[in-house]
Amino acid sequence: MKLVMFDMDGTLIDTAALITEHMTTTFVGAGLEPPTPAQSRRVIGLSLPQAMLHLLGSDDNELAERLAEDYRRHYRASLVSAEGREGLFPGAREALDLLRARADTLLGIATGKGLHGVHRLIQLHDIAEHFSTLQTPDHNPSKPHPGMMLRAMDETGAEKQSTVIIGDTTFDMKMGKAAGTKTIGVTWGYHHADELVEAGADLLVDDYAALPAAIDRVLET
Questions:
Q1: pLDDT digit string (tens) for 87-102?
Q2: CA 159/CA 161 separation, integer angstroms
Q3: Which of 25, 57, 78, 185 could form a disulfide with 196 if both were Cys (CB 3.0 to 4.6 A apart)?
Q4: For residues 75 and 18, is the Cβ–Cβ distance under 8 A?
């Protein structure tokens, strides 16, 4: 079986505006200088505590954990008015449907988002049945550690040479390479294309229409 793993934020789901907004609210609420939107986008994909450490530029784990919890609280409180602000990227649903229909392919998620948020979003978009494995920081180390990919392969029985991660950040590419799998970078997300290539992307795609053929290509080499 082929295993096709997807990142969420910046790859499947367009949440940049919400994330940067709540990063600002979190830091201001703690009396700290808020990160710029560009800085916030750079850490999307990491687990929240790791993202906070990067933005703080320190190793203050206690503060990072506190900021992460404040961020979660702000995000949960905003969901009442967040309708339409967590949409799938254009073409994502069609690509997922096509890949799910393949008898030799399993789909999964590897994301820095918490498991509760993953369940909420895949139910919101009616794609929960598409995925055979969900990997999050709830039970894995943060990207770029290969744990999410290794656990997904263990759960599904997929081999490294038959597994690929689809993502928009260098964290995704490095995670895939560390796990020994193939990697496809998407250019509509939050890290630049040249960074994805430098981090180990086997291929780049510019839209979802090109993704199924790209998957076939990398898993055949």
A1: 999 999 999 999 999 9
A2: 6
A3: 185
A4: yes
Q: What is the pTM of this model?
A: 0.88
3 in Cβ contact with 153 (< 8 Å): yes
What's the distance, CA 25 to chain centroid? 22
Distance CA 179, CA 164 (A): 10
84: phi > 0 → left, psi -120 to 50 → alpha, else beta; which? Answer: left
- Token pair of 39 as six digits: 């800085």
> Is the Cβ–Cβ distance between 174 and 142 less than 8 Å?
no
The DSSP element (H or E) to which 82 belongs, if any, is: none
The SS3 assignment for 10 reads: coil
For 178, counting Cβ atoms within 10 Å of its Cβ (0-12 exposed, 13-18 middle, 19+ buried), the class is middle
Closest CA to 105 of 52, 158, 173: 158
**Distance between CA atoms of residues 105 and 89, nearest Å:** 22
Taking CA atoms, 168 is separated from 109, 174, 194, 203, 207, in Å, by 13, 11, 11, 12, 12
Contact between residue 170 and residue 196 where contact means Cβ atoms under 8 Å apart? yes
pLDDT at res. 86: 85
Residue found under tokens 């193939």: 182
C-beta atoms surrounding 25 within 10 Å: 18
Residue range 32-88, pLDDT digits in tens: 999 999 999 999 999 999 999 999 998 999 999 999 999 999 888 877 665 667 899
The distance between the two most distant Cα atoms of the chain, rounded to a whole number of Å, is: 53
